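For reproducibility, we list the full input for the adenosine monophosphate complex.
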Amino acid sequence: MNLVFLGPPGSGKGTQAKRLSERLKAFHLSTGDLLREGVKNGTPLGKKAQKYMEAGELVPDELIVGLIEEKMASGILDKGYILDGFPRTVPQAEALKAMLDRNKKKIEMAVLLDVPDEEVIKRLSIRAGIEGRADDADVNTVKNRLDVYKKQTQPILDFYEKERILKKVHGLGHIDEITERLYKAITGK
Ligand code: AMP
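The corresponding predicted structure, in tokenized form, follows.
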């Protein structure tokens, strides 16, 4: 199965994408994880991405689309995948669709993990303490990431609604309960 996971920063999207990918035997591809790794290892992509990430801004579309094209071409996604953190803008969603159309492939479902703003802000400040992520530590960066989500990422919901593949899942509750809810929404079981 080929899936896209959507949700605001701090919605639990990354944790749940990882859990579901194990259960569905799909490849978990997190652009945020790949970029953080690139920054840590000082790769050319990491060097270009760092300043945007630290400010809570999005990395330019062409860099991210290039990264996804590279992963698609490598074959690691051939047996199904969950895209976590991509697409993040309408042009990225369009680029993904074009990429898949060329190969006669498609995304079966775009899943939104729905969590209200107040909860997101609370969770991100907790995560800053636990994971020490630089972009969670500063309250202004957190607010900026939420703003960026609303302005640049939320319009993707309309894109997938029009494609008739959007599924909204309530993101509050116990972590295991949310995994079950997602599993059911995705598989119907
Ligand atoms: P995440 O771990 O998904 O919250 O991503 C952390 C940061 O990486 C984001 O705040 C962006 O700066 C950058 N990033 C991750 N995925 C993308 C994407 N698809 N497009 C642009 N920037 C991204």
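Residues 9, 31-32, 35, 52-53, 56-59, 64, 85-86, 88, 92, 135, 145 surround adenosine monophosphate (CB under 6 Å). DSSP finds ten helices and five strands in the chain. Both points were considered when choosing residues for closer inspection.
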